[in-house]
Amino acid sequence: MASHLGTWSGGEEHLPLDGSVVKVTSYVLPHKSKISDHEHREAAGVAGWNANQGFYVYRNDRLLVAGSWLGVGGMKEEHAKLARIALDFPVELDHHWQVDVRKSHVRPPAALVTDLRRIARDTKSKAQSVYRFRGQFSARTAAQDFVFAWREYKDRDGKITYRINRENPVVTQLMEAAPGAQDEIRRLLRFVEETLPLTQIAIHVADGIESSHRPYEGNANEVMADLDFLCQRMTNRGRDVATALNDLSTVEPFSLYPEIVAAYKEKVGVE
Fold first, then answer.
1. Residue 207: how many other CB atoms lie within 10 Å
2. Which of 41, 44, 112, 215 counts the highest number of beta carbons within 10 A?
3. How many Å apart are CA 181 and CA 168, to the nearest integer?
4. How far apart are CA 225 and CA 221, in angstroms?
């Protein structure tokens, strides 16, 4: 199922809708190591690789929307930036799609949401695998797990709450750095957890999660500065630089910016 320049295609699916068919074809573009620098720049477009991921919606081969997860594929993220999905529907199905007046946003029919969510999930997963294990980020072992900033908990009644991950190195480093203020730090973390605006977040997700803000988006210098700060604190406490950076590369938000981690490793002379 491989094709030109190493692009992967999941094949074309025909999704039935009201007596007609919606054609959906998923692709994962090749990693930059598989193409020339010129091809990589050209393929990025004006908005860049990350902005162009997602569905490309066509009506009778005419492009309506480019690079959107349509509210079914989650948020745009660095590791899924190679994912592209072409969706083409005939004009007779036009009334099933909520197309805004600027033709810049569409909402898929409810009858297709389950299939589109499945296709989006599978394509993103494939794209993430290509990105993570073909680039510099593959230097970390595949067996390492990502350390998330938040954890989800569900009680016996099914009520869901979110707690800051106390095992996240960012948190543990802070606790170790200020042993006399651990009670205050715990109270602050609990205050943040208890005041998390879940209702507003849910409304935002329902309105279109693809527009969600990515942590540190547009602030690469801050990511580098925070990485440097934490790395220095960890090495001051006896960790070697390579181990500290390998651990931090699996932690949000640094796991979202492998290119910055790679650049920092090069800067400090770590392979």
1. 9
2. 112
3. 18
4. 6
pLDDT for 253-267, tens place per residue? 888 888 889 889 988
The tally of CA atoms less than 13 A away on the side-chain side of residue 83 is 25
Tell how far CA 244 is from the center of its chain: 23
69: three-class secondary structure by DSSP: coil
DSSP 8-state class, residue 160: E
Q: Which domains are seen in the chain, by residue range?
A: 4-134 (3.30.230), 150-268 (no CATH)
Helical pair 241-248 and 220-236, crossing angle rounded to 10 deg:
130
CA diameter of the chain: 69
Q: Is the peptide bond before 109 cis (omega within 30 degrees of 0)?
A: no
Rounded Cα–Cα distance for residues 131 and 174 (Å) = 31
Helical H runs in the chain?
37-44, 110-134, 169-177, 182-194, 198-208, 220-236, 241-248, 258-268
3-state DSSP assignment of residue 263: helix
Q: Identify whether the C-beta of residue 69 lies closer than 8 Å to the C-beta of residue 81.
A: no
For 243-249, which contacts have Cβ atoms below 8 Å and span 24 or more sequence positions?
245/270, 246/140, 246/144, 247/169, 248/169, 249/137, 249/140
207: pLDDT strictly greater than 80: no
- Whether 251 has a pLDDT exceeding 90, the answer reads no
Question: Mind listing the pLDDT tens digit for each residue in 66-90?
Answer: 899 998 888 888 778 889 999 999 9
Sign of CA dihedral 216, 219, 224, 225: negative
Rg for the chain (alpha carbons), in Å?
21
Report if pTM > 0.85.
no
Q: Which strands form 62-68's sheet, in the order they lie side by side?
A: 8-17, 20-28, 83-89, 54-59, 62-68
